[in-house]
User: Fold these one by one.
Assistant:
Number 1:
Amino acid sequence: MDEEPILEHGRPLPRGFVLVKKGNVYITRQARKLTLSDGYQLFRVHDSKDRLIGLACPSHIYDAVLLLEAATREDRAASVLRKDALDNTRARDALTRLFPSISVAEIDPIVKRAFEKGSGCIGRAGQIGLEERVGLAVWSHVRHKYTEYDTLLRKGMDREAARLKVRGDIQRIYKKWGGDEKLLKARKGPGAKSRGRGGKAGSKRVKRVGKAQIKKATNPAMTAKVKTSGKRNAKGSGRTSSRRKR
C-alpha cells in the first residue's frame, strides 16, 4: 500500500493542513480519498504515546469533506438502517435453518445481542462466514443463559476452566435445538475461545517525516516532480551499477 508518513507529537502540521481526528469513518475515508486523488501527501498524526489520533490533510479538502458529509448524512443513515435490517433478516433465516428445533422465543435475544451494530460481538465479525457466526452466537447464548458459567466466574474460577466445565451442557442444548455437528467442530480446543471481530487488520507502511517531506506535501506538482526524478535516478543508478560489473 501507499506510504502514509507519521507526524510525531510536537511536530507542526504542514502549512495549509489541518488535523482530521479519527472517529468518523466517513470523514476519514473521504479525506484520504480526496487528498490522494488531488496529488497531496497524506499524514498520520500521532500523540506523545505514539498512538494514532487522526490524519493531516489540506484544509480546503477537509472543508469540502465536511460539506459532503452533511449533505449525505440522512441518506447514509437510511442506507445503514436498511443494511442492518437485511443483515438481521439473514441472521434469523440462518438461525432457524441451522437450528430447526430452536424455540421462537430464543431467536430475537440471540440476534439482538450478537448482531447488533457496535456491539463488538461475534455476529459483527465480518471476517468469518454467516453460518459460523450464527453457530458461535448460539453457543455463547446457551453458555450465559442455560449454564452456571457466569456463576463460576463470579466465584473466581478461571475463564477457560469455567468454559470447559459447562461445555457438555452447551453441547446437549445445541444438539437438542438441531445444531449441526459441523458447527460444533468449529469450536476448537477444550475451552473453545470465541473469536473477536477484529482479526488481523491490514496495515499500511509508515515512516517518520522529515522537514523536506512536509514542505513537499503542500505542493502536489512538486511531489509528482520528485517521484519522476526518483524513477530517473533509479534507472541511472542501474546503468552505473552494470558498468561497474563489467
Number 2:
Amino acid sequence: MASSIRSFFSPGRVFLSVNGVLVAAGAFLADYNETHVFNPRWPPHAKFHNGQTMSMGLCLGAGSLYYTLRPRPAPTVDSLRFAAILGSMYWVTTLSAILYPETKGMDPEFGEGFPQMWGAIAMTGLTWASYWLEIRRLKL
C-alpha cells in the first residue's frame, strides 16, 4: 500500500501535477484584476481575447492533470508525453506572444519588460524534466 502511494506521488507526477494546476489557475490569478479583466482602458475585444487565454489555460491544465493522474490504464509514454505537451503549450504560447507586432509584456502604466519570460522558460523546462523523471521511474 505504501509503495503504491509513493508510486502515485512520484516526483515526476507531482511536478507535472503542480504545472497542470499552475497552467489551469495561473491566468486567472494573474489577469482577473485591474491590470486586465477590470482595466477600463481595455477595449471589449482585448478583454475577449484575455478571456479566451484564461479559458485555454484552464482547459490545457485540466487535460494535463487528467493524463498525469488517471489511474487506468497505467501510465504510458504516450499519455505522459501528451500531459507534458498540454502542460507546456501555455508556457510556449506565453513566450511566443511577444513576437507579434506591437506587443509588450506589460501595459505602460504597470511597468516595462517581459516579466513572464523567465517563469515560462522555467515551467517549460520543469514540465519536460518531470516527464523525463516519470518515464525513467516507470522504465517506459
Number 3:
Amino acid sequence: MRDPFLGPPDSLVKAAEPIAKSLALRTLPFHVHEILPVFCFYEFINRFVSPYVSTRLAPKVYPQLSRKTKINWNVHFVSMVQSCFINTLALWVIYADKERMQMSWKERVWGYTGAGGMVQAFAAGYFAWDLLVSLQDINVHGWGALAHAASALTVSMMGFVRSRYGTSWDPTELILLQRPFVNYYGLNFILYELSTPFLNIHWWLDKVGMTGSTLQLVNGIALLTTFAGSRLIWGTYQNYMLYQDIWRAIQTPGELPVPSWLAMAYLVSTTALSGLNYYWFAKMVQTVAKRFEKPNETRDVTEKKRRYSIPQGSSSMVNAPPASLYLPAKID
C-alpha cells in the first residue's frame, strides 16, 4: 500500500540524503516531510494550544497549577492528541493494507509498504519531540521518561534502516535497494498507545478534584484493561513473533544478512519497553487501588493526603509504553 500522504519535495529529499546514508536509514528521505511537520505540530500544541484550551476548559484549576504541574498537564494534552491520531491511523493501515496482511516472515523482517512507513514517520516525529521535552525538563519527567522516549524513538526509526548500501535514490529503484528493518512490527508496537487516552483522563481527573469518583473508577477499569491487552498480551506476543522472525533471518542460509548491531539495537529497545510496561502495570494496579481505599482501612491521615501519579502510556506508540506506546510517568 502506497503512502497516502503528499509526496516529499525533491529539495527536502536531497537535504536528508547525507544523514540518511550515514545512518543507513534508506527510506527516511521519503518520509522526512512527515516527521518534521509532526514534530513542529506537537511543539505548537504544547506551547500554545494546551495553555489556551486548558485555561478555558478548567479556568479554576489550570491557572493555579505550579510550573511543574503545568508542564506535565501540557505533555498529557499533547499525548492525548497524538495517541488518538496515531491509534486511528495505525488501525486503519492494518485493516486497509492488504499487501501487509500477506507478508511472510521474510517480508515481516525486510518488507516495506509506504503506508506503514507513513505511520512510523508520524510516530517518530512525536517520539523525537518527547525525547526533547524529556531532556529539557528531566527534573520534572525523570530518567524513566527519558529512557522510554529514547527507546521508542529508536524502535520507530528502525523501520527506515536497511542492511546494504546502494547508489541510487531514484524512487523507481527503491524496491530493489531498500531493506527497511522490521517495518511490519513497528506498526504493531504503535498499538501500545491504545491505553494512553485513558491514562491521560485518569491523570486529569486527579487534577480537577475528581479522585475516587465513579468516573475515575470506570476510566481506571478501562485503563487497566486496555493497558494489559495492548501492552502486556499483544506486546508480549509481538515480541515473541519478532524474536522468532529475526532468528529465522539469522539462521537461514542465503537470505539477506541481519547485522548484529541492528538486531541487538531493536531487541534491546523492545525488551526494555516491555519491561517498563510490566513495571508500570504493577504500579498502576497499586495506584488505582489506592484511589478507592476507605479511610479506615489501611491509611492514616497523612497517607490520605498523599497524591499518587500513574506512569503515562506513547504514547504513540506507544506512544507509551509507548508518551507514550507507550509513555512513561510524568511526576508532578
Number 4:
Amino acid sequence: MINRLHGRLEGFTGTGQPVNLKYAYIALTADIITEYSFCKSKGALDAEDFDPMLFHSAMGISQLSHILSQMEWVFPMLKLLPESWLTKMSPDTAVVLAWTESFRQQVKDYLTGKEEFKTKSHPSVFQEIMKDPNMLPSDLTTSRLGLEAQAITSAGYLTTAHTLKVASFHLLSKPSYMDRLRAELLTIPSSLSPATDPDNLSKYLSALEQLPFLNVVLAETLRRAYGVPHRLQRVAPNDDLTYRNYVIPRGTPVSMSALDIHDNEDNFPDHQKWKPERWLLSDGKFNHRLGKYIVPFSRGTRRCLGMELAWAELYLAIAGLFGPDSRVEMSLFETDESDVEVIHDMFNPSPKLDSKGVRVMVERRK
C-alpha cells in the first residue's frame, strides 16, 4: 500500500500541483484496514485526488457525534429514508451508509460462499472470525458481522491518517529533526529493506521498532494528535470506585478527554510544542516513564483492538516516505501549524474548520 502511495505521489512530480496529505493518508489507511479486514481494499489510493469525499463524509458524520450519542434514534431513522432523499438531505451520511452497505454485502458474499477464502492471498479479520468454531450462529449473521465490519473499518483509518499528517507536518517544517531521523533510518542495513525483498517486511518493522529517535518522534506525535479526543465513557456496573477521598457509586459513567492527560504541564512542560527530545533520557534511551501519561489508544480491557496495526502503519509509512528508500521529496505548501493543531472535538480530532489540510509539493528525490 505504501508503495502504491509512492507511485501516486510520483505522479505529481513536475506538475506544480500540490498534494493534500489529509486525503492521501486517509486513502492509505482506508485501503489498509479494508484489505486487512476483507482481503479487498477500498481502492481509495487509485481514486482521483485520493477520493476527498472519503475524508469529508467521515468528518461530516463525526460532526454529528455529539447529537447522535444523545439521540440514538437519529441514525437508524436516516437509514430508513430513500437514498435519493438522504443524498439531498445529508450527502455525508449517504456516502457513509453506502460504504456500510458494501461491508454488509461483503460479509454476505462470504457467508453464502460467493467469496471463497481459499482464493485470498492472505488471512483477514473476517476470514478468521467465520472460521472460528467457537462462534455462535447468532454471531455469524449478516447484520451482526456487518456492524462489526463498520466498527472495525471506521476505527481503523481516520485517527491513524491524522497522526501521519501531524508527523509529516512537523518533520517537514523542522529540517533538523528530519535530518536526524533520516540519519537514523540509514543505520538499518539495506539488506533488510522491503524494497530489496518484500519478504523482509516483518524483519524491517522489527528493526524500525528499535530506533530510539523514530520512537520519540512517534510518541510525541501521538501525544499531539491525541488519537480520539472525545470522552470515552466507562462504567463499573458491580463495584463502587474509590478515588482518593471520593467514592464513585457503581453504575456511574466516568470519562475524561485525552487532552486532559496529554496537555498536562506537570508531565509535558510547554505542552503545545512538538518536542520529541522530551522523550529521551540523558543516556539517549526512550523515557518509558512518560509513556503512562499518554493514552492515544485508551487503556485497559477496552483499549483499541487495532493498536498494533496502527503502530505498524506509523513505523512503515514514516520510514517509507522519508527514509532512504523513498523516491520522492516533499515540501510544505501554504500550510502552517494551525492546520494540524486540534481545535475541535468531533469525536475524531479536527483542526480549525477552514483548514485546507497539510498540502505539499512533490519532487523526485535526487
